[in-house]
Every structure is written in C-alpha cells, then in structure tokens.
Amino acid sequence: MAAMVRLHRQTDQIVEESYQRKNEAENQRDKEFVAALKVQAWFRGSRTRSYITHLNSSANIIQKRWRGYLGRRHFRVLVKNSVLIMKLNHYNEKATKIQKMWRGYYIRKYVFNYHSRKRYLEALQIKNEIVRSELEEYAEQQEQIAYRKREAQEAKKREYQARKYHFLISTEVIPGIFNSPFLPYPSEKEYILRSVKPLVHKKKKPEKDPYDPVCRSYDLPKPMQLPPLPEKPQGPFRDPSDVQKQRYKPFQQTLRVSTSYTALEEARQAMKAEEWVTRLNDNTFVPFSKKDQRYEPMLHTTSQYGHLPFGTHFYREEFLDKHIVPQVMSMAQVFHFEVEILIPDGIHLKVHFSNITICIQIIFYFR
C-alpha cells in the first residue's frame, strides 16, 4: 500500500520524464534513421560485395576448369596428330628403306647382276667365236663357189674359142699350127680342138616374107579387129555361176541355232568386265570434282519407288526373289548411324556404326 502511495506521488514526475524522453526520441529520430540507413547500406553493400566476390571466384573456378579441359583436349589432339605424323614418318622411312633394299637386290640380281653379266659376256664371246668360224667357213664356201664359176666361165670361153678356131685343127695330111712336126707331141690346144665340135653359124630367118608381086595384097595394112562377142547369150538368161550358187547355196542356220542360249549373260559379263577395266571412278554416278563437299544423292534415284534402269523390267532373270518374302527386322536388330566430328587443327572424323559392318573413315587435312 505504501508502494502504491509512493508511486501515485511520483506519477507527475514519471509522466514528465516520459514526455521528455519522447521529445528527445522525436528529436533523435532523424539521426537514428540516418544511422540505421547507414548501417543497413553498409550491411547490404558488404553482403552484395561478398556475394559478387563469391560469384567471381566461382566463375573463375568454372572458367579455369573449362579452359583446362579445352586445353587438355586440344593438347590431346595435338599429341595424337604429332604421334600420327611421327608414325607416318617412321613407317614411310621404313617403307622407303625396304623398297630401297628390295630394289637394290632386284637390280643387282636381275638387271645388273655381275655374275650373270660375266657369264653372259663369256657366252657371248664363245658365240662370237662360233659365229666367226661359221662366217669364215661361209666365206671359204663362197670363194670356192666363185672360183668354180670363174673356172666354168673360163672353160666355156676356151671351148667357145676352140670351136671358133676349129679350122686350125691338124689333119692326117696337113699338120696344124698347134701340132708341129718338130715337137715330140702336140700342144694342149690341139687336144682341146680335137675334143670340141666346130662352131655352126645359124642362118637368120627373114623377119618378113619376101616381096611377091603376085601376093601384093597380103602386104597391105590389115584392118582393125572387131570387138569380141559377149559371153552372155542374147535373151532372158541368167549367168550360169549365179544359177550354180543358188542351186548349191550353203545351209543357213536359224537365229536360235546360231546364237548361244546364254549369249545375253555372256554379253553382260563382257560389258561389265570392259567397264571395270576402262572406267576411272569406282562409283560412276558420283561426281569426283568436288572432293571436299559431301555428295547428296537425289531423292528419286535413292528411293525404293524410283524407276528401274532401262531394259531390266522385262528380263526374266532380274526378279529372282519375286516370290520370296523379305524378313522384317526391328530397330533392335539393325541399327545404323553416322557421326561426323570436327576436331581442331583441320581433322575431320567420320564414323559409320552398324551391327553388320563398322566403318571408320578418318580424313586428315593438315594445315
């Protein structure tokens, strides 16, 4: 109770003090507001700066990791290219060495072989000796033949002279000039004259008949001869040779007998073989002028509903699987896709995947 009384006495003082504190608070409100704004601004700024710092550090870490990944990948590509180039150079060097050794061996053994060349020269020398001896024998034979011809001509000439001067032969009454009575035996020419017959001069026949005034008309110029009569008789008659050819003409086979039953297949095989030998490009209908661009075939040539080539629709051997039902394969059984990857430094990787065949084609374009 005393406390209540005491508080009641201090009520005015408490009210006055509260009003004073309220007035002071009103007076200090702007300052406190400004101070609170500063504190909030500082806190928010520090929080934002710390967040931005965190974002920058995170971005730096991400960029560092990504750039490191790109650098390592680029370095791997460079290492692969360098290793491939080293392998190619190594293999080229080894291949060059193998080719050099093989070519040297082949040249030494078959082209410029010393021992074979030596044997060839020795055989050639022996052959030359044989040819020389044969030529010498042939020359001796030709000389003997020429000598016999000269002897025969001289003997013929002596015989002609002996026949020409046969009147100089000696007789039983009068000795000739080659049979002198003062010599023990006649000379050689005397024996030659005795062995031949005298030369007889043949009388020349007159080229023309002697002039006869009775047959003067026979010496007049003769008239020109009339042209010969044609062999073909007059009338509608055929030549006997034509009649003979028609009567005995050879047997003519029919087209079915003269040609082979498989002539069409043989002609096709011959045409394919000729095309395989003469063509320059394996795929005839794919252009090869632009190798850097991929060829995109037209729709009507690649579709299953396109037109057939000319001449294959009416051939009975073209549709061999006409009555065969094809097996439908699901996507789980057959898959095929193609991936193209462009790696830096001009490397173009092209991969075909399939459960039947796996084809990897790598094309390098080095700068």
Give an overview in words.
- InterPro entries: IQ_motif_EF-hand-BS, P-loop_NTPase.
- This is Spermatogenesis-associated protein 17.
- Keywords: Coiled coil.
- The chain is mostly helical and 367 residues long.
- Among the domains are: 84 residues; 66 residues, no CATH class.
- It has 8 helices and 3 strands, in the order ααααααααβββ.
- The protein has a 3-stranded antiparallel sheet, with no helix packed on it.
- A hairpin with a 4-residue loop joins strand 2 and strand 3.
- The protein is elongated, with a radius of gyration of 65 Å.
- The C terminus is likely disordered.
* Global Rg: 65 Å
Gross morphology: elongated
Structural class: mainly alpha
State the end-to-end CA separation.
Answer: 107 Å
Unreliable segments of 5+ consecutive residues? 310-316, 328-367
Strand order of the largest sheet: 1-2-3
Strand content: 5-15%
- Share of helix among residues? 40-55%
Mean of residue pLDDT values: 76
Major sheet summary line: 3 strands, antiparallel
Q: Count of DSSP helices?
A: 8
**Count of beta strands:** 3
Quaternary status of these chains? single chain
Order of helices and strands: HHHHHHHHEEE
Biased composition (Pro residues): 224-233
Coiled coil: 121-158
Region (Disordered): 203-243
Keywords: Coiled coil
